[in-house]
Amino acid sequence: MPQQMQPEIRIDLGRQRLTLLGPDGVRVYPISTGANGPGEAQGSGCTPRGRHRVRLKIGAGCPVGAVFRGRRWTGEVFSPALAARQPGRDWILTRILWLTGTESGRNRGGSVDSLRRFIYIHGCPPTEPMGVPRSHGCIRMRDVDLTELFDAVPVGTAVDIG
Length: 162
Description:
By secondary structure, the protein is mainly β. It is built from 2 helices and 10 strands; from the N terminus they run ββββββαβββαβ. The chain has helices at residues 80-85, 143-152; strands at residues 8-12, 17-22, 25-30, 50-58, 66-69, 72-77, 93-101, 120-123, 139-141, 158-161. The strands form 2 sheets. An 8-stranded mixed beta sheet has the order 3-2-1-10-4-7-8-9, covered by helices on one side. β2 and β3 form a beta hairpin. The longest helix has 10 residues, at 143-152.
């Protein structure tokens, strides 16, 4: 019996697209990456490049719009009223795919470590635009797209960012 293809995620920073290659075919999603462009340095607000993998999946079973702080659900669900009470907040919603770099010196270890930089694929408010870099370094997705991606990939899935 042939071995089933493992899913793989490819993130195109220039086109602001995430592509999922998997046993069920190819799916393409609009995203929003770092407003400061690509880069690996701690505190840069940039999206790191290179080979990564999904280290942890957080939020299974939480409602769509669940608000996360410190990778824990606060018990809140995003709403315009909640957003109005906390203007300027960087919302992390619905699910988190926490990424770890696999290339020592590029995105793993020292001041370039993607895991220590808390680089995620996560949901964001519906008012945030997709297709333009606007995040603080993470990869933002629409909640409906993120829940589909979250359910389709296991921990350890390869993620190539370039």
